Amino acid sequence: MKFHFSPACILLSILIVTLAGCSNNYVDKIDRGAGYQYQPGFPELRLAATGQITENNVSTVIVNGDIVYGSLVYEQENDTLQARILIEIAVQRKTDEQMVVEDQISFSETIRAEDQNIINSQDVFRFEKVFDVPPGSYTIRTVVTDQVSGKQTSRTQETSIPDPTENVSHITDIRILTKNTNSSVSDFNQATTYDIQSSNDSLKFTFQVTNNNPNKPLNIESRLIRFRSDTSIARPMNYNDYSASNIAYIGIDYDEFEVIQSSTRTLTQPGSVVIEFIFEDLQRGNYRLEVTSKLGEEDELYKARDFSIKSPNYPTLQTAKEFARPLYYLMSESEYEKLMAIENAQELKKAIDRFWLSNVQNSNKAKNVISLYYERVEEANKMFSNFKEGWKTDPGMIYILFGPPWYNEQFSGQMLWSYSYNRNDPEKNFLFNQTRLNSKFFPFNNFLLERTAQYYNIQSQQVNRWLSGSILNYNL
């Protein structure tokens, strides 16, 4: 693993800090990014809004968005496909009495492509807008309208900007910028979700610190930490439930972590200082970059940004390994181990093809089955992603094997998925229990299936439907 530090953030000393990662004093200052909020049939918008201060002490809100090409509706114009979108952004400042619109814009974009594959492409159209606004707390509302289908997607983000002229020190929000060093595109792009693709092997963190007391140096301590978290694939439905001490039950343990890197920067000059860190080749897992000062408990400064490194093209599948891993739900343990032992990408792809064709035994039918299976894997990644890939979660497993439930009910930390009008049918209703309620202290949904030995036949029958291709005509 490589670490690079810009001249603005020369490593002065190595230290071990024991600041509590999720204490009451700091948890409100942790930015955990955003989820996908996936809704089939609507434009997919991923959004990040960050309050920053320029080197000239101008306070700004930076809004970055990603819109998935394949989520738009295209019209044929001669030999070209066209999608038309309207993007509206309103920057609202919170006052004691009301929300005040400081700035708002709307702009249209036309996306043109000759390649028909764009209708299924998971690549994104990116936009960035910068708003000069007064210091304060902000709510940013962004609406994307597909002007062909008329469907809209709305997202909101919260951010704040400290007053750089105050005689008080501040730390701004932390931005994460990502880059794939093997790509022809050399620029860093803003991360718009909690999840970051591991193909983006270079991460840049940037923030500002204001220090307007020239007689008192300010020590800024930064550290990157990696949390202990669950990475396992969901157990078969007929296995025993997870014990409360199992990491799969806990999900992510904010009390257990390793310090990847730490540093101290001493600021002696008054004004706003830009600090940057660049980390390369981080392993998959759940991380936090946190920045703090030594001003005592009452005046302590603290900001943090959580993120997760997942598979190279997450939430989509592009590499042979990415296509191979979710076959866990359709294979025996020995078959799966043999498949995953293949290191050559071409040989692995051939083995995947052989697996599907040897079971379905009809190339046209196999093509449709494969398309359906991996479509569900990608949807599971978008709907159930948390500290691990969505396809690995219990709801992800059920969604991939059985599809979307007819009914989805949530009550008192439980979730019931029904694939029947009869809610008492044990073979067509699946109950999930939430190990911890979603809160600012545990910002994830971790639903675990209530397993039973009776599910053995149900899962076996469903796997057989996939392997025979009958899944196309009969689901459950």
Q: Please give the number of β-strands.
A: 24
Q: Give me the number of helical elements.
A: 7
What portion of the residues fall into strands of 2 or more residues? 35-45%
- Helix and strand content put the structural class at alpha+beta
Q: Report mean pLDDT, rounded to a whole number.
A: 91
Radius of gyration, whole Å: 24 Å
What does this entry look like structurally?
With 476 residues, this protein is of the alpha+beta class. The chain is built from 7 helices and 24 strands. It has helices at 247-250, 320-324, 333-340, 345-360, 363-384, 394-402, 455-468, and strands at residues 2-5, 30-31, 45-53, 59-68, 75-77, 80-94, 99-113, 124-132, 136-146, 152-161, 170-171, 175-179, 189-190, 195-197, 202-211, 218-229, 252-267, 271-280, 285-293, 302-310, 407-411, 414-418, 429-434, 447-449. Strands 1, 11, 12, 13, 15 and 18 form a 6-stranded antiparallel sheet that branches. A hairpin with a 5-residue loop joins β3 and β4 (59-68). The chain is globular and about 75 Å long. The two termini are 46 Å apart. Mean pLDDT is 91; it is low at 1-22.
